[in-house]
Amino acid sequence: MEKPRILTGHRPTGPRHLGHLVGTLDTWRKLQDSHECLFLVADLHVLTTDYAHPQRIAPNIHAVLLDWLGAGLDPEKSAFVLQSAVPEHSELAVLLSMLVTVARAARNPTYKEQVRELGLSPSVGLLAYPVLQAADILVYKARAVPVGQDQLPHLEMAREIARAFNRLYGPTFPEPEPILSEVPRLPGTDGRTMHTSYGNTIPLGADPAEVTAKVLSMVTDPARARPTDPGHPEVCQAFVYHRTFRPDVAGPVEDRCRRGGIGCVPCKRELAEALVEWLAPFREIRTRWKGREQELGEILRQGTRQARPLAQATLAEVQAKLGLR
Ligand code: TRP
Ligand code: SF4
User: Fold this and answer.
1) Do residues 131 and 89 make contact, with C-beta atoms less than 8 angstroms apart?
2) Would you give the distance in Å from CA 262 to the centre of its chain?
3) Helix 293-321 and helix 57-70: axis angle, to 10°?
4) 8 within ligand 1 shell (Cβ under 6 A)
5) pLDDT 10s digit of each residue in the chain, 325 long?
């Protein structure tokens, strides 16, 4: 029995953080036994916004690979694929872009948000971001895509493109299904959406001092002036983390808080210690791979070599259907 194929990926924008772990990496790790997994390093997608800093891409790819390994993604089981090294992604994207109206692409909520945030006139590349993402998925005929909630609009576009193509040229692509993580999205340490540019993340490779500082900066129940004041864990950022990373003690932590049995500083110190321990494998992976960039690159080349023939086969089929060869 062949395992169903999934494709998912990250843009190499820098080290991964706890939000990536809870939202995606943990789900990906678990899927590796039941599915044929392709994990994409989407370097072309980085250029849609950060085209002015190409020198950042190589070190960021390195950082992403380290954190993937630390999270238990296993190159023996799964293929790590470099997007730009499989030109069929770009070629398919051009062909699929004919099926997407400009109006449809401009309705994508992520696109709208980025245009608002960047404050620049958006490039054609940014507008076509989800078309390239659709090509990433469809070029491998992936059945499912494990992603965070934020990626659903992109996935919906990939599904629409698959349907449109199949309708016009005959059955070709499965409609890729989302696989969502059961764990709700982790907020940043300040309660806003977790985002590297907000400085409210805890990187997976953070050292104990950084973890402790970030945890101590978390916003707690503002109504507590003294350690004996009864607390409200439901408004406390630290409690979200207690619940997520220490589910076995969340009950007692909650009781203790409500009765005013502990101050917020010791409560957060306890959380920091637990997180430091939790992140030990990520620090360890960094030590283990120090100075072995070559081998890390080899893992990516190996996965890319495995994936490419699949992409080539799909592209050939698509070209034939479009009358191109
Ligand atoms: N857009 C995704 C992100 O920002 C990265 C990505 C690129 C992706 N291609 C993909 C995710 C294909 C899933 C499938 O994280
Ligand atoms: Fe949050 Fe702990 Fe303070 Fe309660 S005691 S508000 S859970 S930090």
Assistant:
1) no
2) 36
3) 100
4) yes
5) 689 999 999 999 999 999 999 878 999 999 999 999 999 999 999 999 888 899 999 999 999 999 999 999 999 999 999 999 999 999 999 999 999 999 999 999 999 988 888 787 899 999 999 999 999 999 999 999 999 888 999 999 999 999 999 999 999 999 999 999 877 788 999 888 888 888 899 999 999 999 999 999 999 999 888 889 999 999 999 999 999 999 999 999 999 999 999 999 999 999 999 999 999 988 888 888 888 889 999 999 999 999 999 999 999 999 999 999 7
Residue 135 CA to its chain's centroid (Å): 18
16 lines ligand 1 (CB under 6 A): no
Look at residue 275 and give its three-state secondary structure: helix
Ligand with smallest separation from the Cα of 146? 1
Domains in the chain: ranges and CATH: 5-187+293-321 (3.40.50.620), 207-278 (1.10.240.10)
Q: How many angstroms separate the alpha carbon of residue 25 from the centre of ligand 1?
A: 13
Nearest CA to ligand 2 atom 8: 264
The CA 188 to ligand 1 mean position distance, Å, reads 21
